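ok trying again, last paste got cut off:
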Amino acid sequence: MTASVTRTAHQVSAQALAWLHAQRECGALPADTTVDLGDPDSVYKPLGETALAASLVLRESAAGSVELRQARDLMEFCWRQLGEGDMLYERLLRYSMMTDPLETYAPFARCGFRHEPLERLLAHTGALRSVRAVEVVPNRRLAVANAARIVGLGQGEGGYDWPTLTRATWLGAAPEPWLIDWMTGYCVTHTVFHLTDWGGNPTGLPDDLTAYVATWLPVWIDIWAEIEQWDLVAELMIVGCCLKEPYCAPADWERLAGAQHPDGLVPRDGDPVPDDPAQRFKDHQHTAVVAAIAGTLAVSRALGGTAEQR
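nice, full thing came through this time. structure:
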């Protein structure tokens, strides 16, 4: 990995994280929010995404002191918004087959924000046949398995069958790569994320799939960069950082840096960006999250490998 990639990746991730930190109040839960969550994707899901990015900055410890402080601030802000875990506990207690309490909790558990009643409830519900049989797309099953792994659940007898879960995905079939579409692209990225725990364990991606992704990832990045789908481009760049031999091309990083705004916002696509701060956050928060993760992992791999090797 070249010095120019490391420098540009750090610049992109630091600016994206600073933007998330500066705009964090735009992601606060409305005062009347309950565990019923009429629209979970509106604020609740973005809080979990912001916490994920912050947790990986802290896990990798490859950022500067300013970025580490901002990441810790974001973790604490998101944790407070979720009632320090009480909201997740109450949501799971009411909706036992929902997977989002576990998935949202995992980044916090990674960083030492623990909620013992929630973990006891997660251990109970996770062992239920009904919960294990919930019908979701295959990469979502991997998301649940990885979240359980992070929290310390789903091990031993009754643990997750990772090979079977892997081969049930689109990527697991090593299909014709030219038939990939926008939604399948996201499915591919998340399959890699969960198998490798966001680059912390690159060996989690089987060798044949590693070779397949390494061959086609540059093509896929070029396709979606050409049509300015920056959110998916950044996710694919994260995939590159999750491989045993990371793929981090200077041209990809220069393109993403060129799309980033001076305040750190990374647009999700080539459409005009509104001036209203609340709308800007709503539309582009996720892209800032994935840009921050991509840059963090790229710098970390350049400096010393993976979390499992340190």
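cool. DSSP finds 14 helices and no strands in the chain. The radius of gyration is 18 Å.
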